[in-house]
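Forwarding these from the shared drive since the link keeps breaking.
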Amino acid sequence: MTKLLQRLFAPVAALLALGAAPAAAKAPAPANPALWAVSDADTTIYLFGTIHLLPPNYQWRTAKFDQAVAGSQQLVVETIVDESNPAQMMSALSSLAFSANLPPIAERVPPNKRPVLEAAIKKSGLPRPTFDRLETWAAAFMLLGDRFRDMGLKTGEGVEQVLRGTFARQGKAVGELESNREQLSYFDTLPEEAQRALLEGAIEEPKAMSKDFERMLAAWARGDVEAIARSFNHELSAVPALKDALLNRRNAHWSRWVEQRMSAPGSVMIAVGAGHLAGRDSLVDRLKRSGYKVRRLQ
């Protein structure tokens, strides 16, 4: 569940991890993450799978990728999280996160997980009664930010943040596939069982999270789409509702967006979490099944 959390929670978790401490300095290995293109006579849409949070100074851009960026008139990401002015995201989160008559937060994890939960809540610095009023998915969000900080991941190093800066400096438009509220609504409507699975993942020990993250990062860096797909299938096999809500429904929506955008000329880069571009029913798979030629560029 850890890898799933890191990939799907990341836009909000990135906001919650502001101020993350730098990780230990390591010489970054050259990365070659997967990049695709869908094109016709007058339209090109690049599809790039991202890691939302990265260690400092991680080298992931290639000459071929930068060529695609240069040729794109617009960047489109999952949702725009403005780290310098988080009011919009926090307003959306607050409007969905609280409910009355919820069971105490401790009762929403197995008894053997409760000491770890209580330690995570204490470390968060938030008032303990707040968590009893938070819906389970929202409690997971709040606690995951601390885990990302413990791992030394920095918001400013994430792929989307870097790309948004690049496009903004070049005077190019930046759009989103979902509003902040739309994205959070996918979590808000999850069955309680699925929300509790997310909460258990969010309080996993930092060492275990770090190892999972390192494996995920390595697969992404080498462009190993098959490994990413296997990881998602494994993570989601126990909680099908998560796959339906957070992957299948969103991928279906995004594939319709791409198909509509193909009717207009120009070049666009779409940058979304790498798991959305891997395996069956991914955005890439859906477009291929709709008759589009999707070329892998790297």
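-- next protein --
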Amino acid sequence: MLKSTNLTNSRALFFVIPALLLLGFVAVIPLIKVVDYSFHDIFPQVSKTWVGLEWYNELLGSSRFWESFGRSLLFSAIILIIEIPLGIAIAVYMPKKSALVAVCLVSMSVPLLIPWNMIAMIWKVFLSSNFLGKLLSTIGVDFDWKLNAFHTWIAIVLMDVWHWTSLVVLLCYSSLTTIPTASYRAAAIDGASRWDVFRYIELPKMSGVLLMAILLRFIDSFMVFAEPFRFNAGGPRSATTFLAMDLVHDVVSYNYGPAAARSVIYFIIILVVLWTFKTALAIHERQ
């Protein structure tokens, strides 16, 4: 019996090896190279000069880095505060058994199918349309997303909420559909309110996928680049310049050493967040 088990495990490992090799090629080797670059001055690329922690000291001592870091954290916090409750609310009130289920699911999936590099262009056309401008003017709102930093933030947040709330909705909805009808019937017999049903039946069922949704949305929003860059190029006056935009600026400027140091710091930040969520998920599973 033991011999059979060992043979099965060996076969399973044999099928995992290609995946491990691919992961090493596309992830581990580039990561090692980036870490190596972060300790060198690499211009031109044919030669490298050891600089030690110079790029890290320069980066962590830069006010621009901390300002971008603060904006990225603020953006992620706003996104989570809006998208998580909104996604839960939509998922809870979506029909579970009717002809409208397919319509709702398709409607929720449409924003996720649009290429990420087209989102900003769609919203620029939408906000620049004469109809919307006249409509906002009618209600006394002068929405200047090009030169007003606060309005630009509103537009970028709305753009992200429109694009990614559907992900939260679909994840939560998938959990809600697994709740037995008997649970709702028992709650109705006991005279439970709608809030009680949500708190004691629906929310515990969604808690696992909610942690995943929060993690995915945090990572994606924290490293957002394409939408704010294509929307207003980080302006006005760098008000929407986030961490990833500074990284891309270093790359296109051939500052490979500083860019690598930025990448390593971002990687460490994401690792800390992942460890935090892993710990929270482990605690949740033990309960």
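The chain has a mean pLDDT of 84. The longest helix spans residues 2-37.

- D.
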